[in-house]
Model the fold of this input.
Amino acid sequence: MSLVSRYKKIPLLTKLLFAMILGIVVGAVWGPSTAAIQPLGTIFLNLLRMAALPLIIVNLIAGITSLDDPKMFGRIGVKILVYYTLTTALAIVFGLAAGYLFEPGAGFVLEGKYEGVIEKIPSLGNTILGLLPVNVFAALSSGRFDQIVVFSAFLGVAVLFLGKEDRAALNRGFNLLARLFNKLVSIVMGYAPIGVFALIAVTTGKYGSSLFGTVAKYLGATYAAVAFQIVVYFILLLLFAKLSPVRFLKKASPLIITTISTCSSLASVPVSLGCADDLGVSRSVSSFTIPLGSQINKDGNGIMLALAFLFAAQAADAPLSSGVLANMLFIALILTTGAGGVPGGGIVSIAIVLDAFGLPLEVIGLISGIFALMDMGLTTMNCLGDLVGTVIVAHSEKLVTPLTAEEK
Done:
C-alpha cells in the first residue's frame, strides 16, 4: 500500500490533532519566525470562506423547504432564537462574574490613548432593521452574511407556500446544490491539516512568551467564563437532549480543532454542519440554526464586552451599581446581536460600551494585543453553543436520528 493510500485512510480528526500538536511544538521552538508560514494558514481560511457563502445559502434553503410545513419552521425559529438570547445573556453574566473573581484591571496603569471611531449604541429597532437587506446583491458583494441568512430564510419559507409539484422540484434542486457544495467542503478539508498546522504554529510563536501579569489575569478570566458557559451547554444537553457531554465532544472534535485554528465562526459553518450530521440531526434543522447562529449567537462577544467593561472600570477605580451593571447587560445584548452591522467588529463594540459609561478607552490597546488569544476560546464556545442549540431543537422536534452503538 502506498503512503498516499495510507494517509487517506487516517481519520480527519487524527490528522487535525497531529497537525495542532505539531504546530504548537514548531511555534514554541521557532517563535516569531513562524510568521513565514502564515500564508499556508491564510489559504485554508480563504478556502473555507470561499465555500461558506454558497454552502450557507443552498443548505439553509434546502433545509427549510424539506420541512414541508411553515408552522414547523416557525416553531424551530422561535425555539432557537430564545435559546440564543438566553445563552448570550448568561454569557455576559459569566463575563462579569469572572471579572470580579480575577480582577484583571486592579493595579493596571493606564498609558497612551485609544484613537478610533466610536459609533453610537444602535437601538433595538435599528438592530433588527440592519438584518434586513434592502438589496440582496449588495449584501452578497459586501459580505453581509447576517443579511444573506435572513434573505435565504425568507426565500426558503416562500418555497413552502408554492404548489406541491413546484415545491418538490425546487427542493430537489436545492438539495442537489447542497450535495455539490458539501463535496466542495470535503475537498477543502483535505487541506485542513496543513492549514491548522500553520495557523497554530504562527499563533504559538507570536504569543508564547507574553502570557504574564495583567495579560495572564485577563486571559484567565476570559477562559474561566468560557468554561462556565460550556458547562451550561453540557447541562442543557443532558436535560433537553439526553446526550452525554463525552459523546457530544467526541462528535464535535473536528469543529473544536477548526475553531481554535481559524478563530472564525463563519469559516467553521461547514464543519459544524458535518458535526450535526454525525450527531444524527436532520439537515432541515441544522441548515437553518447553524448559519443563523454564526451571525447572531455571539456568546463570546458577550463575555468579551463584559470583561472589557469591568477591566476598564477596575483600572479607573469607577464605582459600579447594580443599575449600571443591568444597563451594561442590556447594551451588550444589543451589540452582540447587531455585531455584523458594526464597522470594525468586536474592538469597536468594546469602544462603544466603554464610551457609553465614560470609562477610559486606553485599555483597548491591551485587549487588541491579546485579541487573537481570546478569540480562539470565544469562537470555539460560540460554535459549540450553535451546535448544542441545534441538537436540542432537533430533539424537541423529533428530527434527530438516534446514534447506533458503533457511532456512540
